[in-house]
Amino acid sequence: MKIRNTAAMAALLSATAIAMPATAQVAGIATADTSVAIARSKALGTAYQQIGTQYASVAQQMQAKRTEINNINAQLDTNKDKNLDQAELDAAVKAKNPLLTQIDTKQKEINAMQDPIIRAQLYSVEQIAMKYEAAQQAVITAKKINIILTPEAFVWAPDAVDVTTAITAELDKSTPSVPITPPADWRPSRQGAALYQSIQQLFNNAAQMQAAQAAATQSPQPGAPRPATPAPAQQPDSR
């Protein structure tokens, strides 16, 4: 699993990165997304920034390892089209190319280095999740809600029934920060791990969306002068 810079990920917690509709007064039936509510909380944003700072040197080492893997992949790219395809990988496996062992070793090193980062992130997510029910109940009471369903349970609903933003606001009031260093004997729960994966997917989706928007912005407009020398192609990504 590839881990992005945690400080950069925390920046994706903004409302523009994970957009949700404005919350209005509701009564009766409502919807809420637990993952989004926690992902947008101030506590998680602060926790991820702290983790990013604490493990900044580790993140740099991981990136250096990924660069090394990409350079090895470039050596396996026999037709030099900047794309390591399945046929080239199969050929390397058939030939028992020692470069494959180097890639495997470096990937295991990356996994070992990222383990404490994931552990700290998981712990912070679970600490906020423990406060979620109380925050949700506060919203239920304030808005006189009888039923809360997941967004997937609705075929269609007006924006006003979504109380995710209101729950995030309650979390921000009750839990402005959480610890990021788990006890030595701490183990994440199955529910916590699933919630963490869901939140990470939100971050990944937001990052991809922002990258696509940035690429579209940087694309030359019709009639605009093109650079004299094209930018070098990227090396094949690690597999």
Care to describe what's here?
The model is unreliable at 19-25 and 225-239 (pLDDT under 50). Helix 3 runs antiparallel to helix 6 and helix 6 (98-129) packs across helix 9. The chain has a two-stranded parallel sheet. 58% of the residues lie in helices and 4% in strands. It starts with 5 loop residues before the first helix and ends in a 21-residue tail after the last helix. It contains 9 helices and 2 strands. It has a domain at 6-54 and 117-214. With 239 residues, the protein is mainly alpha-helical.
Topology summary:
Layout: H1 6-11, E1 28-31, H2 34-39, H3 42-54, H4 56-76, H5 86-94, H6 98-129, H7 132-143, E2 145-149, H8 164-174, H9 190-218
Parallel strand pairs: 1-2
In short:
The protein has helices spanning 6-11, 34-39, 42-54, 56-76, 86-94, 98-129, 132-143, 164-174, 190-218, and strands at residues 28-31, 145-149. The chain is built from nine helices and two strands.
